[in-house]
Design brief:
307 residues, 8% strand, 6-stranded parallel sheet, Rossmann fold
């Protein structure tokens, strides 16, 4: 990157907070571009259910890493980190400041602090672990991890099958415990970073989530999910909004019940996001409508006091 005077402005927050609109206004004021940090908006087949910005929003400011993947592509947070850093190399040649926005906390952490380097996993190992999970459930994963890596077993969220599966895959691939790759070394980035969490009162946020779900259904979320139903086993589609509609198609719920489950599960997801962001003491929390006041507190070199 060109110099330490470059700034990365991270605008994050729970789902339905209004990140897209705020990020666009900030990027327009700074005459810069936006990198998406939403781990599902990258998949071009999933537009309605992931709340991809509207065409007019995408045309208002150059956006990157939206619709750049297929649900059939393998992708992970480490790949995102490297792709994003390469993209920033180019953008900082044109702009002193770049905006990153999205609610994927793990991806934001990887970009700002770096992520441990894990070896690539053979697709056959990944498929074997996934098949065993499908046939034997999460208890199999827990038992396997306890054998392969007792240290990580004692720390990992044992309710999160994805994280357990990743640890098992790496352990099987390398013959070493997954925990041996966790160096937890923060990488110093050659650019400044300012991190903003947009937040709203809980009742206001939940109302926005509920109304957005209704709007998605009106815009054709069910039809989008129906087109994706044959690929429901893919990791990209293990996502709120699609899982509930797949269950409806399987006859587990009626459509109204599925829509209500989307609302409930999205609210729960927002709570988990808030918990994640609260871990980072460098985050500045602000209501979207009070963002101008918060920016006034930033150093002059940020060059955004005019917002």
């Amino acid at each position: 990157m060109s110099s330490t005077t470059n700034k990365l402005i991270v605008i994050t927050g729970p789902t339905a907070t209004g990140k897209t609109g705020v990020a666009i206004e900030v990027a327009k004021a700074l005459n810069t571009e936006i990198i998406s940090c939403d781990s599902r908006q990258m998949y071009r087949e999933m537009r309605i259910g992931t709340a991809v910005p509207a065409a007019e929003e995408l045309s208002a400011v150059p956006h990157h890493l939206i619709g750049n993947l297929s649900i059939h592509d393998y992708y992970n947070v480490s790949m995102f980190e490297q792709e994003c850093l390469q993209l920033l190399n180019k953008l900082f040649m044109k702009h002193q400041t770049v905006v990153v926005t999205g609610g994927s906390g793990l991806y934001i952490d990887a970009l700002c602090n770096g992520i441990d380097d894990f070896p690539a996993v053979d697709p056959e190992i990944r498929k074997t672990v996934a098949d065993r999970f499908e046939s034997e459930g999460i208890e199999y994963l827990r038992r396997q991890l306890k054998i392969l890596d007792p240290e990580h077993y004692a720390k990992v969220d044992l309710r999160n099958h994805k994280r357990i599966m990743k640890a098992i895959e790496v352990s099987l691939q390398t013959g070493k415990p997954y925990s041996s790759f966790l160096t937890a070394q923060e990488r110093k980035r050659p650019f400044g970073i300012e991190k903003i969490v947009l937040n709203r009162p809980r009742e206001e946020l939940f109302d926005r989530i509920n109304r957005r779900t209704t709007r998605m259904m009106e815009e054709g979320l069910l039809q989008e999910a129906e087109a994706l139903y044959p690929y429901r086993h893919l990791n990209a589609l293990n996502t709120v909004g699609y899982k509930e509609l797949f269950a409806y198609m399987d006859g587990q719920y009626d459509l109204d019940a599925a829509a209500e489950l989307i609302r409930r599960n999205t609210r729960r997801y927002a709570k988990r996001q808030l918990t994640w962001f609260a871990r980072d003491k460098d985050m500045i929390w602000v209501h979207p409508e009070e963002l101008e006041i918060s920016y006034l507190a930033f150093p002059k070199e940020c060059e955004i006091n005019n917002l």
